[in-house]
Amino acid sequence: MNILHDQKYEVSRREEPFRSIICTPYIGTEFPEANLADWLRAPNSDELISQLALIIAERGVVFFRAQTEITGELQKELMRKLGQLSGRPKENGLYKHPLTRMLGEADPEISGLSNSVTRQMYSTGTPKQASSKVSKGIPGTSRVNWSELSHKLEDFTRARPALNKLTESLIRTGLWPAWHTRRKTWPEDQNWHSDSAFEQNPPDFSSLKMTQLPKDTKDTLWASGYEIYDRLPEKAKQLLECLTVTYSQPVIRSLANAKNSSVFQGPRGSPNNLGTAMEAVHPMVRTHPVTGWKTVFAAGTDYSSDDEDDEAGLMLDRVVINELAADEGKLVLDKVMSLIKDSHDLQVRFQWRNPSDMGM
């Protein structure tokens, strides 16, 4: 972790009014005694929620235990306040998943999550046996103004030879080792992803609330995009900051083409999230608008350039680097994914112990 991260977090930590536990040095803070409903009802509620937004921006994810007083409406109110108090545009609202209507959600701003629902949403073949319902949460609010995060790219027709030379140099010197693991060999729980990256303006905050504990596995993992960026060699950082990535969700696009009336075409949180394309281009490295720290944004469950399904018939996110050839892009994305999967100290593992445990 660089000095900027340490100094800025120490500033915010001195102002925290509630006891907290640092889950890992790089990501994750837990508030074991806090009651979010009290925070929302407090006279200084805006101050508390604004501070919470800063801590989430710095620490990546925060956790609360047994929030039994947080109803669906209070959860939505909390997400609205987090967005409003951290500077999101006034015209933005809570995110609505494009398949919410198809899945029959009672409230389009609250999505029920479970293995069976995931298979229903993303399967094009015969899905595996699904397990019991796991969690319920809302995807949060979205930002419109990402201009400060975007990088103006050079003409890559002119810059392409230099990029090729830099990539070859990184491989030859060992600063960018090749990674041979294929996606199809990964266990399903290794499918890391960035939520709703196929939207022009993905949500800025999201909230997960457990409604029914699963019988077996009760863990969810998050990884720090800040720390991924910090661990890259300087030349690799320079390369990534010149790149853009196209994210798409083929199964949503296919369903949208087949059943327009069943897919919510927007606006989905942001006025920019419209239609059925389910595809967006983002910088591979973003600068967080609250902290000013750089983070690697490119992470997806699949980054092949073809439309081949996996063994379970599950069509996953597509992640493609626009300025590199397919093999070069795969090398870069493999490196990012290897950092996420193999650097356990930049991950945080949260065990869901109680109904109404929350992560955001």
Radius of gyration: 20 Å
Biggest sheet statistics: 7 strands, mixed
Count of discrete alpha- or pi-helical segments spanning 4 or more residues: 10
Q: What structural class is derived from the secondary structure elements?
A: alpha+beta
Uncertain stretches of 5 or more adjacent residues:
1-14, 124-160, 176-189, 304-315
Helix content: 25-40%
Topology (elements, then pairings):
Elements: H1 3-13, E1 21-22, E2 29-31, H2 36-41, H3 45-59, E3 62-64, H4 72-85, E4 111-114, H5 115-122, E5 133-138, H6 156-173, E6 207-209, E7 219-223, H7 225-230, H8 234-240, E8 244-248, H9 250-258, E9 279-283, E10 285-287, E11 294-296, E12 318-321, H10 326-342, E13 347-351, E14 358-359
Parallel strand pairs: 2-3
Antiparallel strand pairs: 1-2, 3-14, 4-5, 5-6, 6-14, 7-13, 8-9, 8-12, 10-11
Helix pairs in contact: 1-3, 3-4
Overview of the molecule:
With 360 residues, the protein is of the alpha+beta class. The protein is built from 10 helices and 14 strands. The chain has helices at 3-13, 36-41, 45-59, 72-85, 115-122, 156-173, 225-230, 234-240, 250-258, 326-342, and strands at 21-22, 29-31, 62-64, 111-114, 133-138, 207-209, 219-223, 244-248, 279-283, 285-287, 294-296, 318-321, 347-351, 358-359. Strands 1-2-3-14-6-5-4 form a 7-stranded mixed beta sheet. A hairpin with a 6-residue loop joins strand 1 (21-22) and strand 2 (29-31). The longest helix is centred in the middle third of the chain and has 18 residues, at 156-173.
